[in-house]
Target: HlyD family secretion protein
Amino acid sequence: MPTVAERREMPSGPAAPVKGKRPLRRAVLLAVLLGGVGFGGYEAYGYWTNGRFMVSTDDAYVQADITVLSAKVSGYVAEVPVENNQAVKAGDVIARIDAGDYRLAVRAARDKLATQQAAIERLARQADAGRAGVQQAMAQLDAARADAERAAGELQRQSQLGQSGYSTAARLEQVRADQQRSAATVAGAEAALAAAHANVDVLTAQGAEAERVAAEYKTAVDRAERDLSFTEIRAPVDGVVGNRAVEVGSYVQPGARLAAVVPLTTVHIDANFKETQMGSLHPGQRVRLEIDALPGREIEGRVESVAPASGSVFSLLPPENATGNFTKIVQRVPVRIAIPDDVANERLLRPGLSAVVRVDSRDAGSAEAAAPRRAVAQAPASTQTDATDGPPVARKHKP
Model:
């Protein structure tokens, strides 16, 4: 049996395995440290080789050129053959307005046009009759001139016979009266011919006036038919109906909003980048898109265009910075991102969905997008202008 002193010197039972756990703990800590260093190195390598060239923003949303349909004419809605979220094709009827009054307006306009065309026909026949009267007046003038020549010749013969004593004074006076009457008949025939010509001119002018009135009536018919066509509101593009705001029996006025058509096959991304990021963005660059509604799926897009001003400039109340209380705020510029057609045709992207956009700044963009910039850079100096308003000032190229 051990003594009390030996028992004190002997290690207790639970404390014996402590020395065996220390190497294991050190190994675990070393593995964790090495793993952290490796992961950090991997992330640092990824940032150095790729991440630092990516320009990203999460202030991006799916957008589309939504068409808002409005009424052009007033009336009661007779039919609404579509529902919300229904796919439609270009030309499909979205709503119909009661067209009874507009059909009557078309009929009245056509009746006026028909009446005017009948008047034109009547004036044309009168003009033909007037031309026939001109021909008759010309024939009568020719006959009167022939009688006048005969009377003038008879007067000359009778004058010669009277001088030789073979004709009486009474006969000479009768012949002279016949000659004067023939001359008067010629003058009357000439006046009748002039009147016939004037009548034809008047009828021709009336016909031209009637033609102009008929043209006005034709315009009225076209306007009435156009108003009649507006009673059917049709989809201008392929898309999906949304926000329908009209029901059967509603009375609509011109400009009243009826529904919206969203073309899902032509969606795009509007990404709002900070102004400090704009120096690396150019049209044509490749873009990596992550849509929140499609987790785990990466879509490749293209920078299509850059807005000409920041979003605040186009707001309803643009900021006025010429004040004493000024705080500088980083502005954002909208950048339009094109989505591939095959992705858009899936109709999975809806306007308003959030997205994360990453642009590879190492991509210089497409050749088509870079061409305008090269053209501006290579423009001749003779086309440059001074900063002040004025005509172009020729400048010499420096060697």
About this structure: The first strand starts at residue 54 and ends at 63. Residues 367-399 have pLDDT under 50 and may be disordered. The first helix runs from residue 4 to 9. The chain has six helices and 14 strands.
